[in-house]
Design brief:
The chain is mostly helical. The protein is built from 4 helices and no strands.
């Protein structure tokens, strides 16, 4: 990887690498926006669950209302799980810097591209998990609302 034979003509790949690295940086920025979106949605989920839990506690307690409250707390738990841990993986500058200084320009660029691609894949899995947690939490919040409506309307 990144090695060129003596028989190959030396080609300046700077423009291609600049284009590729620019695209990878745009992808990372897109992932940052999606992560912020997931965190915003989880905040709304937690707040909604808290308000609804307050309303349920003020309602005369029955098995149906208690079940709705438990499901509602689970929904809030999914929201909380979405926002922790707060950090997201980044490239390790010291390690990358050392590797870049040890190789020729094309090999350094290939290494950097490989590092970005691996980082994007790892972050994508994390973002996807967070979005699924938010969706599950919102689903549970909806189920909790339905359970509470049924329990209150039927006096369960």
């Amino acid at each position: 990887m990144g090695q060129f034979s003596a028989s190959e003509p030396m080609v300046d790949h700077a423009a291609q690498f600049a284009l590729l690295l620019g695209e990878l940086e745009r992808r990372l920025a897109s992932q940052d926006r999606r992560m912020a979106n997931a965190e915003s949605r989880s905040g709304v989920l937690i707040a909604s669950s808290a308000v609804f839990a307050g309303l349920l506690v003020a309602t005369p307690m029955s098995y149906g209302v208690l079940l709705a409250l438990v499901v509602n707390i689970a929904a809030a738990g999914f929201g909380i799980a979405t926002i922790f841990p707060k950090s997201i993986e980044e490239l390790k500058p010291a390690r990358v810097r050392q590797r870049l200084l040890e190789t020729d320009v094309d090999s350094a660029n290939l290494y950097l591209v490989d590092q970005y691609l691996a980082l994007i894949e790892r972050r994508e899995a994390w973002i996807s998990l967070r979005m699924r947690l938010v969706k599950a939490g919102l689903g549970l919040l909806g189920v909790s609302l339905i359970l509470a409506a049924v329990a209150i309307s039927r006096g369960l």
